[in-house]
Amino acid sequence: MENQSAAAAVADQEDRTKKFCKKSAADSANQCSSDSREMSAKKVDYTALVGAADSAPAQTAEAGETISSAAPAFLMASPPSQHQHQHQHQHQRLAELVPAGEAGAVIEGDDIELFAADDDDDDSLAPSDAETERSVRVLRPVSTQQQFDDRHGGRLVRRPLLHRLRDRLKSAKTGCPPDRGRLCGALVQLLPFLGIMREYNLREWLLPDLISGLTVGIMHIPQGMAYAFLAELPPYLGLYTSFFPPLIYFFFGTSRQISMGTLAIVSLLIGSLVRKNLPAVAMQVTPAGDNVTAEAFIVNATSMAADQSWGSDPLIRSRVSLACATCLCVGLIQLLMGILRLGFLTRYLSDPLISGFTMGVAVHVFSSQIKYVLGISVPGRNGLASLPLHYYDLACNIGQTNFVTLGIAAFAVVILYVTKEFVNPRVRKKIKAPLPTELIIVTLGTVISYAFDLKKNYNVKIVGTIPTGIPPPEFPDLSVLQPSMAVEIITVAIIAFSVCVSLAKIFGKKYNYEVAPSQELIAYGICNTVGAFFHCWPAGSSLSRSAVQDSMGGKTQVAALVSSTLLLLVLLFVGKYFETVPNCCLSAIILVAIKGMLEQVKEAPILWRLSPYDFWTWIVTCLGVVLLSVDYGLIMGLAFSVFSIIVRTQSPTSSILGRITGTDLYKNVHAYDDIEEVAGLKIFRFEGSLYFACAENFRESLYRKTGVNPRRIVQQRRRLGEKYARVTATSDASTATVKRTFTRMSESEKAEAAKAVGLDWPRVPVQHVILDASTWGYIDYVGVRALSQAIQEYRDIGVAVYIANPKCGIRACLERSDFYEKNRYDIIYVSVHDAVLAAQFDQRAALRKSEQQLLSASSAAIKVSSPTDGETSAAAQLRKRAEANGAEQDDSAKAVTKV
């Protein structure tokens, strides 16, 4: 069965190969002859054994013969000629190239032949055992990039910007008028719920959506009131924020699993903003003549947020106005970003930065709840080092701890933690729904507080008055906004969107549907813009609620409609029964809820092992948020991320490549044992783009890695030339004359002349340097200049530089610059292996030319020598030089032949 399936797979592959090529046999023959003429006696014969470490050693032949080296079988070719007699002749000729007993293929020009092991008559690649080696031999010309493009119709893909703009304008003018289908598509894109409802499976999806919606709605009640403490706002506003945004997101959002509502990070940012700008707002809302200091205002407002007589108090009203105005601005910013398609900006917020930021925010959240757990009042701190100062205030007021409050909070934390970590995992296996522990704690706390009158008897702070019903829409008071709040508002908008869209993409990948970041921005913007009219602060998607909605089988945002319906019932009928909830119970819910955020500290060791840059980004961001402030910490994290990117791009790694034995694969010489450098040349790979920040580093790395510094060699030769001129100067020939004569000599003559007077002329150990440009992402003006300068400096010392496998964008940039005014087109090759073979051809041609010159010089010296009196001193010296150079060239020839 295995052989039959393998044979079927091979037959299918042959059919696809034959379908791929539509050329006739005559065209194939013409193309083969054309390629043969273009080869100019240069033909590459690749040999590779699939699955084998080595193959037969490469051979070097005379001009017109085949040079064997190695290459993988990543090639496509046309099927063989359809003429039977030509096919048989071609089959017999190519079969000789496949080693006996091996399955393999031979590709030459437009002809492809497949051979089975031990069966030269079968032209199909039959299945073989796993241990059978399959070989492929490819015959093609050594190609520069220009030859390759001319032969195969290559062109630069990216067109000039003006041409692309002109084509867009032309297509816009000639475009067809909007039809019904296009309008429907645009409407579905703006209102994604239309597409979701169109494919809604009522029988299979409705029940899971109902169950998950009810479960998430129950979670909204305690979380909404608890996160209001983080935002320094009345708890009932958390119920509004949990009701309106999910309802609006149902119509405009593209994610089907996330749960919109209150979010710990955003709530803390709003609380920090409100607390910082509260004194400025107080001056606008406090009646004239009232002498209220900023510190007294903050302490009074904070205590009123924890105690409750909301009424129409101007201090509470000012905080609500500030939060609603901020919510409106955040919504408008997100809406504008969505319209302008700026969702890509979140790509610059890396995962380590977001993780470090949320970890620092979690520390702030944890710290902000300690005063509610202890039942003490401390002034709010703003600005730099607010968190360390907050702990100082806690230490100073630790003696005021309310032990009843502390006991209730400790009991609630233990119950919540045990249920979350140990009970719910087992319960979900049976009923799939987690126990609503938060709602149980809130309900139990409400009953106990009401029964024992904890506020009056034990001074336990409670939630207080919760208005019944839905508030009428009210335009936010924008006069409370200050210019200094702009940075903080933009920070809230970006952070809220980044966290939410990241969570949406996670569920999109899990369930294989697209999440459009720009449409998500529009959805979040509309949620916050509309929510601002109903006393909401900026909303976001919670990981805990979204995970529960997903685990309960929620399929669409219909679950959000169900949870909003449940919250509507709470606001209309049940809200007043939660007025006696102790604040410490809500704080306990927050402390347990942020456990997952605090556990992000475990990512630090992983980041250290993977990338020190990401590790330090995490550390700098987290410490900046904790020790300085939330906004300054984020700015520090962004700055360090940009700095790390600059450092990494301006100092990329580089290496010298060698050839894996028996292949055409070139790898780092320090990464493999079975590898050797090609004699007479160096292959340099620069693992980065070539632009202004790393241009100098590129040149320095090139000179250092290759061991050939042309600047240093030129300086050494110049000094030796001056020294030679001083040593050999006579009364008849001045130093300047000798120096000019020495300058006109060839490199070999200079070396001989310097050696004659006891000077060691610096020789260059290589004749070619090959730059592997496959890793270059882009190149700019400074990079082009640095590349041209390096090529020219190598050329000055007799070293040729080839560029291998540059991307289309790199070649386009070189074409637009003056690079080809100083350099030839034929220094760019399609692959490293082509460049290596071309360099070997050049070395062999130079070797033959040198041999012919030496033979001619030797013959001339022999003819002018005296047969009787012996050779003259000049002829003898010339003969010695010829013999010495001949021996040296023989060694070089042997080295090239070995390669």
From TrEMBL:
<keyword id="KW-0472">Membrane</keyword>
<feature type="region of interest" description="Disordered">
    <location>
        <begin position="1"/>
        <end position="40"/>
    </location>
</feature>
<feature type="transmembrane region" description="Helical">
    <location>
        <begin position="258"/>
        <end position="274"/>
    </location>
</feature>
<feature type="transmembrane region" description="Helical">
    <location>
        <begin position="557"/>
        <end position="574"/>
    </location>
</feature>
<feature type="transmembrane region" description="Helical">
    <location>
        <begin position="320"/>
        <end position="344"/>
    </location>
</feature>
<feature type="transmembrane region" description="Helical">
    <location>
        <begin position="431"/>
        <end position="452"/>
    </location>
</feature>
<keyword id="KW-1133">Transmembrane helix</keyword>
<dbReference type="Pfam" id="PF00916">
    <property type="entry name" value="Sulfate_transp"/>
</dbReference>
<feature type="transmembrane region" description="Helical">
    <location>
        <begin position="520"/>
        <end position="537"/>
    </location>
</feature>
<dbReference type="InterPro" id="IPR036513">
    <property type="entry name" value="STAS_dom_sf"/>
</dbReference>
<keyword id="KW-0812">Transmembrane</keyword>
<feature type="transmembrane region" description="Helical">
    <location>
        <begin position="398"/>
        <end position="419"/>
    </location>
</feature>
<dbReference type="GO" id="GO:0016020">
    <property type="term" value="C:membrane"/>
</dbReference>
<dbReference type="GO" id="GO:0008271">
    <property type="term" value="F:secondary active sulfate transmembrane transporter activity"/>
</dbReference>
<dbReference type="InterPro" id="IPR002645">
    <property type="entry name" value="STAS_dom"/>
</dbReference>
<protein>
    <recommendedName>
        <fullName>STAS domain-containing protein</fullName>
    </recommendedName>
</protein>
<feature type="transmembrane region" description="Helical">
    <location>
        <begin position="618"/>
        <end position="647"/>
    </location>
</feature>
<feature type="compositionally biased region" description="Polar residues">
    <location>
        <begin position="865"/>
        <end position="875"/>
    </location>
</feature>
<dbReference type="InterPro" id="IPR001902">
    <property type="entry name" value="SLC26A/SulP_fam"/>
</dbReference>
<dbReference type="InterPro" id="IPR011547">
    <property type="entry name" value="SLC26A/SulP_dom"/>
</dbReference>
<feature type="region of interest" description="Disordered">
    <location>
        <begin position="865"/>
        <end position="899"/>
    </location>
</feature>
<feature type="domain" description="STAS">
    <location>
        <begin position="671"/>
        <end position="839"/>
    </location>
</feature>
<feature type="transmembrane region" description="Helical">
    <location>
        <begin position="485"/>
        <end position="508"/>
    </location>
</feature>
<dbReference type="InterPro" id="IPR018045">
    <property type="entry name" value="S04_transporter_CS"/>
</dbReference>
<dbReference type="Pfam" id="PF01740">
    <property type="entry name" value="STAS"/>
</dbReference>
